[in-house]
Specification:
The complex is a heterotrimer of chains A (about 120), B (about 350) and C (about 120). Chain A has two helices and six strands; from the N terminus they run βαββββαβ. With about 120 residues, chain A is of the alpha/beta class. Classes of the chains: A alpha/beta (about 120), B alpha+beta (about 350), C alpha+beta (about 120). Chains A and B meet through β2 and α2 of A and β6, β7, β8 and α10 of B.
Chain lengths: ~120, ~350, ~120
């Protein structure tokens, strides 16, 4: 298995770290989310095939800042995570207010289905 | 001050292969901005990892989308193999490359036909799809299915192609190449096509990079980014250069995709010449534990696959980030200051595959 | 100025005639590997249930008691071929013709008609 560059940071440092990465010329690849004993967000960046990731492990009700001020096209990823997992991301530029997919259930990916 | 109107575009439109809705704010036939709405084909396929074990999941993953179905299966299998440390046999890797390139040809031919239909050139659309039928016949002859192959499995591939079948594939491709040259000549040289595409939706290199554009859409603006040069599958042993253009308008995007078609035929020839003998599938024991990111070059751009396993036979998480998801903000930028009649062609120039976007 | 670039293609297609088949008068020959519906050689089957566990859509049902029965829901099968590859006795095979579309769902059943020796 190849080396995967994943760095752990805390929810408050997200804007500062993203700004540093932006100044070095990286572009945002994706924002992923897993729900297992709390919310786990992974921000992936790339520049000329150098692939780095930032990881944040936090509780469900922690409010985290949006990075749309730095990377404006992140609004799609953040809206999707907000709707499917119920993560609390504030100040998204271009917020759909849970109307992106219009699912009838609240935060469907958060809980496992009963067998 | 001119009056502003809002016109809805989609979800049903003759030009769109899949449903997407855009609210176009117009001022006297010029588009000022576009507001997207997606979610018509959201099926929540990523949640099925809780019910289907990781060996049954390739069949779900490749049904995320019909046009790019082989890359989804391959990306999922590559991620799980990297987590479990499974070594795929050489012949299996080369066979996957052949099928991936033929799937790329099929996707680009579909796009070319739809673009011709978007400017009303129906006879060219039918000729392009007639050539595409021959590619689909190759796929049915070798794997059993026209679009959904069900041939990629964890540890390799399930069906083999012997030397006679490979020679037949090459013979069909050689005949096809001659017809393809005649048809693509019309796309590139005809005056009516040029009037509708040259200078439309220009994006400079810096703008495209700042908007996060990928795939042939970004290559047409001069961004050199092609995951195949990183050498996954058998691409490390093949000799090719990513195709790029400078202008960044719709004509350049068309030219990049047409050149990629001929490059794919060349890559299939190189792979068939170099294919080794041996096994095609290795045995899989145990369950995956760990996580991995894989990036694969789909016909539309770079796709990211994330798999997380926890040691049981059901995975924790499977995530796909498809290229159309990343190209949508760039599309909204190109729509500013264009005419209403150019909107269908601009939307098609990113090659939208909305079922992949929403899974 | 190139407005007649398609002239060669058009003339060729006028002389070639239609490229499509006259279906349904002329039926379509499927290839040897075309994936279709599943057949079971019931005499070889040991009713282990492997195919039932592996099927991604749960189309196959296998019962051992009170009687040995193997049945498949034809409309649920996605013709992936997973059951064919995991069968230990290799009694399952894939036809190259798929189930014809119908107005109601079909469930095909095969019962074991052998008489046991003990």
């Amino acid at each position: 298995m190849e080396e995967q560059n994943i760095r752990q940071i805390s929810p408050e440092e997200i804007l500062k770290e993203t700004n540093n990465i932006r100044n070095k010329g990286y572009r945002l690849v994706a924002i992923s989310c897993t729900y297992k004993d709390g919310m786990e967000l992974t921000y992936s960046f790339d520049k000329e095939y150098d692939f780095i990731n930032l990881r944040i492990n936090m509780e469900d009700d922690v409010k985290i800042e949006s990075i749309t001020r730095i990377y404006p096209y992140a609004f799609l990823y953040e809206n999707e995570i907000k709707e499917l997992f119920g993560a609390k991301i504030k100040n998204i530029v271009g917020d759909f207010h849970d109307q992106l997919y219009r699912i009838s259930v609240d935060a469907p990916f958060k809980s496992k289905e009963e067998k | 001050m001119a009056k502003r109107t809002v016109i809805p575009f989609g979800p049903q439109h003759p030009v769109l292969p899949e449903p997407i809705h855009l609210d176009l704010v117009l001022e006297d036939e010029k588009v000022i901005e576009a507001i997207p709405q997606i979610g018509y084909v959201h099926r929540g396929l990523e949640k099925l990892v809780e019910k289907k074990d990781f060996k049954q999941f390739p069949y779900v993953a490749e049904r995320i989308c019909g046009i790019c179905s082989f890359s989804h299966g391959m990306g999922y299998c590559m991620s799980v193999e990297s987590i479990m440390g499974i070594e795929v046999p050489e012949r299996g890797i080369y066979l996957r490359t052949i099928w991936a390139e033929i799937a790329r040809m099929q996707s680009h031919l579909l796009w070319l036909g739809l673009t011709a239909d978007a400017f009303g050139f129906e006879s060219l659309y039918m000729h392009t799809w007639r050539i595409r039928e021959q590619v689909l016949d190759i796929m049915e002859m070798t794997t059993g299915g026209r679009l959904i192959f069900s041939v990629c499995d964890i540890g390799g591939v399930r069906k083999d192609m012997d030397a006679a079948m490979l020679d037949k594939v090459l013979a069909i491709l050689t005949d096809l190449e001659k017809e393809l040259r005649e048809v693509t000549e019309v796309f590139l040289a005809d005056d009516t096509v040029k009037h509708r595409t040259v200078g439309l939706g220009k994006l400079s290199k810096k703008q495209a990079y700042d908007l996060g554009a990928i795939g042939p859409f970004a290559k047409a603006s001069g961004i050199n980014h092609d995951m195949r040069t990183q050498g996954y599958a058998a691409y490390g042993k093949l000799d090719f250069e990513p195709i790029m253009a400078e202008e960044g308008d719709c004509y350049a995007r068309m030219k990049v995709r047409i050149d990629e078609l001929f490059q794919s035929i060349d890559l299939v020839r190189q792979t068939v010449a170099a294919i080794p003998d041996g096994e095609i599938l290795s045995k899989v024991k145990g369950n995956p534990k760990g996580e991995y990111f894989t990036r694969v070059e789909q016909p539309r751009g770079e796709a990211l696959y994330y798999v997380k396993g926890n040691g049981t036979k059901f995975l924790d998480r499977f995530r796909v980030r498809t290229p159309t998801f990343a190209n949508l903000p760039a599309l909204l930028e190109t729509l500013k200051n264009c005419d209403l009649a150019d909107v269908p062609i601009l939307i098609l120039s990113i090659d939208p595959c909305i079922s992949c976007t929403e899974r | 100025m190139s407005i007649l670039s398609m002239a060669k293609l058009l003339v060729k297609s006028v002389f070639h005639g239609p490229y499509t088949d006259r279906y349904p008068k002329k039926s379509r020959e499927n290839y040897e590997r075309t994936r279709g519906s599943i057949d079971n050689d019931i005499d070889q089957c040991i009713f282990c249930g492997m195919c039932m566990r592996r099927c991604p859509t749960s189309a196959i049902t296998v019962t051992k008691k009170p009687e040995k029965k193997w049945s498949i829901e034809r409309m649920q099968c996605i013709q992936c071929g997973y059951c064919v590859s995991v069968c230990p006795k290799k009694c399952l095979s894939m036809r190259n013709q798929y189930t014809t579309p119908d107005t109601h769902k079909v469930r095909d059943e095969y019962t074991d008609a052998r008489v046991s020796d003990h």
